[in-house]
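Hi everyone,

Forwarding the result from last night's run.
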Amino acid sequence: MRRTRWLLATLLLCACVHRGVTPIRSHFNKAVYLYSRGELEAAISEYRLALDEEPDDYRASFNLAEAQEALADRLERGSNAEAAEALRAQAEARYRALLAVR
């Protein structure tokens, strides 16, 4: 009986793992991971891929704006004010679009 329960639990776990993660969530999750590691350019790319798949995903949109702001800060510290300003403008436009929807 105990062996049967163990086998059933293993099969259920495998079934859950086999379903996998949808593409939008995997791009989103990868972006969150990259952002947490400070890989801002890569995170921005992944957030854009997530938004290509699901344009109305407000979390991906907000996080993209946050990543753009963080990269703008980094560029500003590196004396690249022009690129930082362009990123800030993109982030601000995204924030405004999010506020308009909500």
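The mean pLDDT is 84.

Cheers,
N.
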